[in-house]
Amino acid sequence: MAALGWLTPRRRSATARSVLAGEASAEAARKSSQEAQEAQEAPKVDDQEPEFPVIGDDRAAAFFDLDNTVMQGAALFHFGRGLYKRKFFETRDLARFAWQQAWFRLAGVEDPEHMQEARDSALSIVKGHRVAELETIGEEIYDEYMADRIWPGTRALAQAHLDAGQKVWLVTAAPVEIAQVIARRLGLTGALGTVAESVEGVYTGKLVGEPLHGPAKAEAVRALAAAEGLDLSRCAAYSDSHNDIPMLSLVGHPYAINPDAKLRKHAREKDWRLRDYRTGRKAAKVGIPAAAGVGAVAGGTAAAIALSRRRR
């Protein structure tokens, strides 16, 4: 599937297509109060730190990656489960998505081949469907598969920016329509995501530019900041992945959230702030929620067996 996971190209430097994807996403730019548990898990500011975020700074904003930063797992794969339930594709495709999701959760990083495959198949699945139809389905899928996977700690960070009077955007390679649903449900300002081409409200099966991933995310943030009159040196960005170092490097307050090994190393070298909301030694090591670990392994193993039998 791939209109849902238009994902990671191998290029790392910003290209004309990255700029186009970023600008397109910029153009395309729930919970009310947090309960006691969220409040308890809210990050504590060290005594030596100045107060942050700064209340009333209207030239500051916050940018949050989605997968494994705000939400456990990949939005694309949760969306795929919802589409399968609605007969958008067949069982063999679901097995592939299950294996890709298991890999993502066990490894804690995106595999380029898995993500490219997901992107291509997703684009073909949504081709010919109306944008409004996918937006409505996205609302249902959020309730079914995503709402219970929001990290309370990261949600509290986003709320702190909102309480300070700042705008907060999601920045993700997931389809912008799905990203906007999640942002709206979380009470955020909006979302930057991968833009799929549509003509008269119908998906063509193509992208505008390229997936909003890596350098393209940085270009989207740069474009949005220019349009909004933001000072990036006063802004914050949050991510779990080393692929988002370009975006994190743009802002004056970069945070590594549930970081993969490469981002953790880079963040320590650059003296960036780190937060890890995963629990359990194993979860901290491989990047999966402790409570979901057994299920992810079991589901991934079953999917792998199904795939291997099919390929013999």
Description of the molecule:
- There is one protein chain.
- With about 300 residues, this protein is α/β, with parallel strands linked by helices.
- The protein contains 13 helices and eight strands.
- The strands form two sheets. A six-stranded parallel β-sheet has the order 3-2-1-6-7-8, with helices on both faces.
- α8 links the parallel β2 and β3.
- The longest helix is centred in the last third of the chain and has 19 residues.
- The N terminus and C terminus are likely disordered.
pLDDT under 50 segments (min length 5)?
1-12, 30-40, 42-47, 280-312
Q: Whole-number radius of gyration?
A: 18 Å
Structural class: alpha/beta
Measured distance between first and last alpha carbons = 23 Å
Reading the helices and strands in chain order gives: HHEHHHHHEHEEEHEHEHEHH
Q: Looking at the structure, what is the overall shape? A: globular
Strand order across the biggest sheet? 3-2-1-6-7-8
Helix content percent band? 40-55%
Mean pLDDT: 76
Tell me the number of helical segments per DSSP (H or I, 4 or more residues long): 13
Summarize the biggest pleated sheet. Answer: 6 strands, parallel
Strand proportion: 5-15%
How many β-strand runs? Answer: 8
